[in-house]
Design brief:
By secondary structure, the protein is an alpha+beta fold. The protein contains 10 helices and 15 strands. A hairpin with a 2-residue loop joins β4 and β5.
Length: about 375
């Protein structure tokens, strides 16, 4: 697909008003109601609308400027994934921002072709997907089975029983809308509203399908694939366009919103892209120093405990945290050392400690102020030294 800015004929410094004006001009030029349903202009209409829908949104625009279309489709920056943008979506966007009261008559100088309301899009489906911390590190593709409403096999989505078909609504003549006149102190006003008889569809079903009772849908199950990028949190979600429920009477499919739930790991505490763990060590390891193994999200690594470390001191493992969702780097793992005191001693241990007691120095009246700071102060200090 062409560059979004090129599609709209604007520069990268264009503001919101410039974007909207450029899109309106092109949308009116390529709208199918002005081009006798030309397939080429229909495709062009969809493309400029997709470009507009991205650039009008400051968050999506920032991601597009940095990562291009791929960044949008992967849902970077905490945004929902932007993919599967179709012609129906383009029409909805145009109607949302430029349709206005009374349809498109003011824009095109005549009646909207067809008149009837477009087929209703299926409702959005929301599902939860659990993700482990290890999957947050690498990203993961999951295949999911989702309960959805699919096109009725018996009536092929029409909603009508075998041997019958929907007929044009007699109340609106198939237009899907009716005009209402209202008298006020200022005079008569005419408004256009959806036809109450056919619900704005422009057609009526006299003999509903016995399987779906005229809805055109039946319950089913679909298998879908969702690509979860590295660095996600439980606050993120991903939108899969056109993967949800079919709309009533063969309307377009709705979306599936994947709500992410990152599983907690009792070994780690997450702080954005950083993680924290506690490491118990013996008195001799703290006094003499030692090389120990410590858990990280993707496996155990060796860590050097310096001699003379105090309980509560924090060591840092660079790059052993979680990736940033924006792909800009990886967090660190902070290891809080806790000196373990045994509750029960063997005879040998007690004898050795009593021998040590004879030669060890007395503890100072108080430790250095720096060593008494809270764990949070220590971690904050390490952050500022990065």
């Amino acid at each position: 697909m062409a560059d979004y800015y090129d599609l709209l004929g604007i520069g990268k410094s264009a503001d919101a008003d410039d974007i909207k004006k450029a899109y309106r001009k092109l949308a009116l030029k390529y709208h199918p109601d002005r081009n006798q349903g030309s397939k080429d202009t229909e495709i062009r209409f969809k493309e400029v609308t997709e470009a507009y829908e991205v650039l009008r949104d400051s968050k999506k625009r920032a991601i597009y400027d940095q990562y291009g279309e791929q960044g949008l489709r992967r849902g970077m920056g905490g945004t929902s994934g932007f993919s599967g943008f179709g012609f129906t979506d383009a029409i909805e966007v145009f109607m949302r921002d430029f349709g206005g009261f009374g349809g498109l008559e003011d824009l095109f100088g005549g009646q909207q072709s067809g008149g009837a309301t477009a087929p209703r899009k299926g409702q959005t489906t929301k599902i939860k997907v659990r993700v482990t911390l290890a999957e947050v590190v690498t990203g993961v593709t999951k295949r999911l089975r989702v309960a959805t409403l699919d096109s009725c096999d018996q009536c092929s989505g029409s909603g009508s029983a075998d041997g019958s078909s929907p007929r044009p609504c007699s109340a609106c003549g198939g237009a899907g809308e009716v005009r209402q006149m209202q008298r006020t102190v200022f005079g008569q006003f005419v408004s256009v509203v959806g036809c109450p008889t056919c619900g704005g569809e422009g057609r009526v079903i006299d003999k509903p399908c016995t399987n779906c009772h005229g809805d055109g849908r039946s319950r089913g199950e679909r298998e879908i694939e969702v690509e979860i990028p590295p660095g996600v949190t439980s606050e993120n979600f991903i939108t899969l366009r056109g993967e949800g429920n079919v709309g009533p009477r063969d309307g377009p499919r709705g979306d599936v919103i994947v709500l992410l739930e990152v599983e907690e790991d009792p070994r780690f505490q997450r702080d954005g892209a950083h993680v924290r763990v506690e490491l118990p060590v013996t008195f001799t390891q703290a006094a003499l120093g030692a090389e120990v193994e410590v858990d990280t999200i993707i496996g155990r690594v060796k860590l050097t405990v310096p001699a003379g470390i105090q309980s509560g001191e924090v060591l840092r493992l660079r790059g052993r945290g979680l990736p940033e969702l924006h792909g800009e780097g990886t967090g660190d793992q902070f290891v809080r050392v806790i000196v373990w005191t045994p509750e029960r001693l063997s005879d040998e241990h007690e004898e050795a400690l009593r021998a040590l007691q004879e030669v060890e120095e007395s503890a100072p009246d108080r430790l250095d102020v720096g060593s008494q700071r809270s764990i949070w102060s220590r971690v904050k200090e390490v952050f500022t030294q990065a």
